[in-house]
Structure formats: structure tokens, C-alpha cells
Amino acid sequence: MKYSTRALGDWGEQVAQRYFERRGFRLWKKNVRFREGEIDLVMMKGNTLMCVEVKLRRGNIAGWPEESLTYHKRRRLYFLALQVARMFPRWYVVRIDALSILYDGAGRNIRLRHHPHLRII
Which residues pair with 101 in a beta bridge? Predict the structure, then answer.
């Protein structure tokens, strides 16, 4: 069965949201858009705001999904996270995480890799 890119992205974001909710985070917003780009999920736990980049790939022939997080993409995520931080009081800690989802096409065999505190440089 084929799905549109948007439908696959939405499915991946749902998987990621459930993953983080099971770890005590709650969703603040999905697909936070700025002129420079978009953050897939912004999750909250205590005084921590977590900006999440969700990477989804079918099969690992082309490598793991997180391998597409280039320096330029991480840098752009950093500046987007700064914009999210400006929306909240100073006592919030903002971090950038990535969740890579590798699936078999049917959505039954899913492998997740969480990459907390992405390094920008």
C-alpha cells in the first residue's frame, strides 16, 4: 500500500509523540512553522522544552534516517529552537532531540533511535 509523503510524515510524528509521551513529556505543538523552517514536535516536561526532529525511512539500504541530519540541518534546527525559546519565560531549558524511525513499509516492524541533545557544531 502506498502513502503520500505527508501521510507518512504525519504517521512518523504520531509514533514520535507517543514515544515521548510514554517518557513523561507532553505535546505543546506540532509542526511549528517559522519563515526559516519547521520543527516537527515541541514537547514539554517540567521546565524543559524539547524541539524534536523526526526522521523516517523505509528500510536501511540508504542508511539510518538520522544520517540525513547534516550540519546545515542541525544548525537550522538550532536557530528554530531559539525562536521557540523566545516564546517562553527564561526559566525554560530548550534542547534539540532527534528521533529516527526505520520501518518495513507495512508499519509493523518499527525500530526507533532517540538522539538526545543534538550537537550543533
Answer: 56, 112
